[in-house]
Write a structure and sequence with these properties.
Length: about 250
């Protein structure tokens, strides 16, 4: 294990990234555990307030991210870079745990919209993990030594994989496009398959093709039916179940 760590993490200079990822994941797990205890009214933890205002943990998260980021740039290497990497990971974990709050500019932490925070954290951790495993953006790591010396081959590879990711994004497959940045075959699959019905690609190219539009809608429905429930249960297991939303009938009665 020590030899593997030295060869694959320390020598390539990835130790700060590993420390940041570890701090990021651990911070998210601890933060979610604490907030779930506060929500249940258990344990010694309470919401932090000042002058009657609830201080969200995104606030210290932003401060720690700024300190860790600038500190890592200033130290570059040595013990300092590792320390600031941990500080940055902690800050990023606090910030992204409340990503939905930043996105909606509202306290949606335990609402259905709050699921977006869990999704962003999982995707971020997975992306950093892929980089740690040796995947380079746009598949440059797939090139041979001779191809890497050929600047034209590198540029062509980057452009082609970028186009695949862009096509996947235009077809309404944001996560596929994101993972396709570091795993080009994922972007290729997303680029060649049918677009999501509400995507820009479908609105532009399926408008006069009712059969294709129907096939895209059917495929999206089957995909969501197969994976949406599993994804929700996974998010609930990680971040906690959102508060039940009042029905529209109850809203009309009130």
């Amino acid at each position: 294990m020590g030899h593997w760590l030295e060869r694959n993490i320390v020598e390539p200079g990835k130790l700060p990234l590993l420390l940041a990822l570890g701090a990021f994941v651990l911070t998210f797990v601890v933060t979610r555990s604490v907030t779930r205890l506060i929500r249940a009214g258990k344990g010694p933890f309470r919401n932090v307030e000042s002058g009657g205002m609830h201080i969200h943990h995104v606030v210290p998260g932003v401060v720690l991210s700024v300190v860790g980021g600038f500190g890592a740039l200033a130290s570059r290497q040595g013990l300092g870079s590792g320390v600031f990497a941990v500080v940055f990971g902690v800050g990023a974990g606090l910030v992204l745990d409340e990503f939905a709050l930043i996105l909606h500019l509202a306290d949606v932490y335990w609402s259905e919209q709050g699921r977006k925070s869990v999704e962003v954290v999982v995707v971020t951790a997975a992306m950093v993990g892929l980089v740690l495993a040796g995947f380079s953006p746009f598949g440059v790591d797939d090139l041979s030594a001779d191809e890497l010396q050929d600047r034209g081959a590198v540029i062509a590879s980057v452009v082609l994989n970028f186009v695949f990711s862009l096509l996947a994004l235009s077809k309404g497959k944001a996560r596929t496009a994101l993972f396709g940045v570091v795993v080009p075959v994922v972007a290729l699959v997303g680029a060649v398959r049918l677009a999501r019905p509400a995507s820009p690609w479908a609105r532009r190219f399926y408008r006069r093709r009712p059969r294709t539009r129907a096939r895209a809608g059917l495929r999206a429905c089957r995909h969501d039916r197969r994976w949406a429930g599993l994804g929700r249960r996974f998010q609930d297991w990680i971040g906690g179940r959102p508060d039940p939303q009042p029905s529209r009938a109850a809203d009309r009665r009130s």
